[in-house]
């Protein structure tokens, strides 16, 4: 097949070889075409390849040669349009994308970008305790989210504001969480940027790095069991987002191995943006990115240009299909991008990278300007629409900002609720003790910002 005609290539794993005369299905694999079975593997006399349980199709050789990374080509990066918004191969043009959809994705990315600038400045003004931006990575979040169904379950990290935006999280919901007011779904218990939405099937973001990855593998296994028990319910997948820095954590390796051995319907989306906090990728690993690890764990894997929203969407769409195929299996997507801003408001990235490098990336390529160039070339966007969209989005963000900042914080009682179904004796005792302290030293505590004040207990 001519390589120019290929859709895109996932690095697939060889099929397992089964030699047992009787193959008994394991409990977790009752779906048709499931490849996981109890089997025995034996080495046949005169075989020209290894047939041990750990490697069932490795050729014998008399050549003493260690495998070196430099002898293998780097995994290719799939793209549809270049940095100028031009389709590289017209046969791969996004024909199923409606103009109104592309415009909406663009506005979603623009919303996240403008909100990031406003909220970053708000933190510097002391109006927020913390903030993290998604600059340069908006295309990964919005593009991948557009390929999921509303029923799919999402485990995000802290640069997935675009996923929330694309799935319908409102500006009021963003702001309520950031200001930890009484309308916050988390009742003011989490740090800023730790969004979550039961309605949108997005688990609340956690601070500990990579903790969501094994959680996603477990949730995907639960969905697989659900599908077995309820065959009439539409099958769902789990989409799990993380950065390449999180892939240095042990949780990443445990999660991929669990997902592979249990054949879990999960799509892992790694944002490789070049830097963990204070740590460039060259100091994180020596292998071929994160994609090479997926292959090592026996997972179908692909690398994609994260600044190309069409490529990200198409890859995720195919990955979702594959994840549900044959009863379920994991897929790994490594999306390449560049972290334009600091890691967070607690970081000064110019202490470990050159300012000129960042400015060069800002000018050269990012997902927002790339999609804008494509839309302008198609005649569906222009400078007037750009100005109108930016003005409207900024006004709406500032309106929600102002309203959320004025709202009262949740009642003090919320510090103790939702730990158990009912308040424990210990919690009730702590509440009583706190109330006594507040009554004893009223001048030391300003409770006006909390709904109900002292009575909120």
TrEMBL record:
Keywords: Metal-binding, Mitochondrion, Oxidoreductase, Potassium, Thiamine pyrophosphate, Transit peptide
Gene Ontology BP, a term: branched-chain amino acid catabolic process
GO cellular component, one term: mitochondrial matrix
Main location: mitochondrion
Residues covered by the Dehydrogenase E1 component domain: 107-411
UniProt keyword RNA-binding present: no
Cofactor(s) in the UniProt record: thiamine diphosphate
UniProt entry tagged with the keyword Metal-binding: yes
Record's subcellular location: Mitochondrion matrix
PANTHER family: 2-OXOISOVALERATE DEHYDROGENASE SUBUNIT ALPHA, MITOCHONDRIAL (PTHR43380:SF1)
Function text: The branched-chain alpha-keto dehydrogenase complex catalyzes the overall conversion of alpha-keto acids to acyl-CoA and CO(2). It contains multiple copies of three enzymatic components: branched-chain alpha-keto acid decarboxylase (E1), lipoamide acyltransferase (E2) and lipoamide dehydrogenase (E3).
Stated name of the protein: 2-oxoisovalerate dehydrogenase subunit alpha
Organism per entry: Xylona heveae (strain CBS 132557 / TC161)
Phylogenetic classification of the source organism: Eukaryota, Fungi, Dikarya, Ascomycota, Pezizomycotina
């Amino acid at each position: 097949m001519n390589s120019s005609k290929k859709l895109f290539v996932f690095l697939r794993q060889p099929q397992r070889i089964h030699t047992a005369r009787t193959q008994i299905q394991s409990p977790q694999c009752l779906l048709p075409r499931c490849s996981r079975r109890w089997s025995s593997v034996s080495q046949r006399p005169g075989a020209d390849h290894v047939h041990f349980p750990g490697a069932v199709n490795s050729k014998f050789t008399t050549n003493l040669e260690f495998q070196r990374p430099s002898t293998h080509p780097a995994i290719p990066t799939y793209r549809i349009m270049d940095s100028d918004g031009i389709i590289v191969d017209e046969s791969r043009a996004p024909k199923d994308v409606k103009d109104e959809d592309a415009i909406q994705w663009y506005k979603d990315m623009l919303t996240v970008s403008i909100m990031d600038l406003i909220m970053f400045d708000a933190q510097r003004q002391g109006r927020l305790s913390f903030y993290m931006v998604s600059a340069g990575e908006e295309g990964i979040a919005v593009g991948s989210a557009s390929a999921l169904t509303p029923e799919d379950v999402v485990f995000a990290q802290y640069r997935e504001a675009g996923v929330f935006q694309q799935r319908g999280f409102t500006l009021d919901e963003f702001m309520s969480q950031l200001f930890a007011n009484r309308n916050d779904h988390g009742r003011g218990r989490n740090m800023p940027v730790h969004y979550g939405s039961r309605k949108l099937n997005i688990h609340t973001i956690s601070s500990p790095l990579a903790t969501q990855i094994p959680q996603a593998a477990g949730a995907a296994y639960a969905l697989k069991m659900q599908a077995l028990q309820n065959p009439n319910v539409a099958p769902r997948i789990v989409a799990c987002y993380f950065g390449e820095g999180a892939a240095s954590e042990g949780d990443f390796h445990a999660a991929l191995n669990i997902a592979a051995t249990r054949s879990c319907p999960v799509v892992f989306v790694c944002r490789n943006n070049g830097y963990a906090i204070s740590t460039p990728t060259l100091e994180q690993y020596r292998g071929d990115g994160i994609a090479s690890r997926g292959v090592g764990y026996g997972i179908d894997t692909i690398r994609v240009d994260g600044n190309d929203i069409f490529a990200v969407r198409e890859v995720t769409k195919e990955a979702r299909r594959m994840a549900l195929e044959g009863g379920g299996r994991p897929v790994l997507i490594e999306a390449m991008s560049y972290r334009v801003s600091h890691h967070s408001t607690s970081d000064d990235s110019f202490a470990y990278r050159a300012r000129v490098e960042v400015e060069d990336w800002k000018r050269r390529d990012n997902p927002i300007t790339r999609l804008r160039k494509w839309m302008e070339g198609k005649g569906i966007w222009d400078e007037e629409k750009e100005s109108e969209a930016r003005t409207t989005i900024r006004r709406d963000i500032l309106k929600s900002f102002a309203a959320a900042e004025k709202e009262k914080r949740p009642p003090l009682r919320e510090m103790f609720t939702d730990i158990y179904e009912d308040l424990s004796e210990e919690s009730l005792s702590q509440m009583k003790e706190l109330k006594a302290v507040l009554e004893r030293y009223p001048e030391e505590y300003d409770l006006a910002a909390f709904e109900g004040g002292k009575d909120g207990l």
